[in-house]
Amino acid sequence: xxxxxxxxxxxxxxxxxxxxxxxxxxxxxxxxxxxxxxxxxxxxxxxxxxxxxxxxxxxxxxxxxxxxxxxxxxxxxxxxxxxxxxxxxxxxxxxxxxxxxxxxxxxxxxxxxxxxxxxxxxxxxxxxxxxxxxxxxxxxxxxxxxxxxxxxxxxxxxxxxxxxxxxxxxxxxxxxxxxxxxxxxxxxxxxxxxxxxxxxxxxxxxxxxxxxxxxxxxxxxxxxxxxxxxxxxxxx
Length: 236
Known about the structure:
By secondary structure, this protein is mainly alpha-helical. Helices cover 77% and strands 0% of the residues. The protein contains twelve helices and no strands. It has helices spanning 6-26, 29-45, 49-66, 74-95, 100-113, 119-133, 136-139, 142-153, 156-161, 163-186, 192-203, 205-220. The longest helix is centred in the last third of the chain and has 24 residues, at 163-186.
C-alpha cells in the first residue's frame, strides 16, 4: 500500500486511546464518547485497527478493573466504536478481499495444532524490530531523542503515583506486543521477511507517536492528583 492511510490511522488510534485514558481519570463522559468515535474510525481506516484498538482496550479495561475502577463507561464509548468499526467489518466481509492480516489467525491455528510453531519467525521479528528502531534512516533521531528526554528530564517519581501515565505506558507496551503478534501470525501465510521489510515502519507509527506523547507528558506535563482507589466513571 502507499502508506497514506497510516497517518490518519495513527491519529485516530492514538487520540482515541488518550481520550479514553483521560476520561477514566476525569470522569468526563464527553471525551469518552469522542474516544469511541476515534477508535471506530481507526478500525475503519486500517485492517490492523481491529486488533490494536480492540485488544489494547481490553488490556486497559482489565488493568483499570484490577485497580478498582468500578464502571468503565461501556455504554458511552462502545456504541460509536461498534457502529463505525462494525459497519466497515460488514462491508469488508461482503465486498472486500481478505488480506494476510484477516487470513493469518485461522492459518496459524491450523499449523499450531499440527505442532508447527514457527519459532524461527519469532527470532526474525524481534531482530528486525530491534534493528529498525535503531536505524536513523527510518526513524531519524526520534528514538535517541525520546530516550534522552526520559533519562535527562523525565520525572520518574510521577510514574509511580499517576495512573494516567501508567495507563499510557501500558497502551504503548500493549500495542508493541500486539503488532509483534500480528507479524507472528502473518508468518504462517507469507514471507515474513518481505512483510517486515515493507511494513514495520508504517505499522509501528502509532506506537512511535504514543511513545513521543507519553515522554512529553512525563517530562513536561503538569502533575495530576493521584486517583483514588475505586473511583469510577458514572454510568451513562
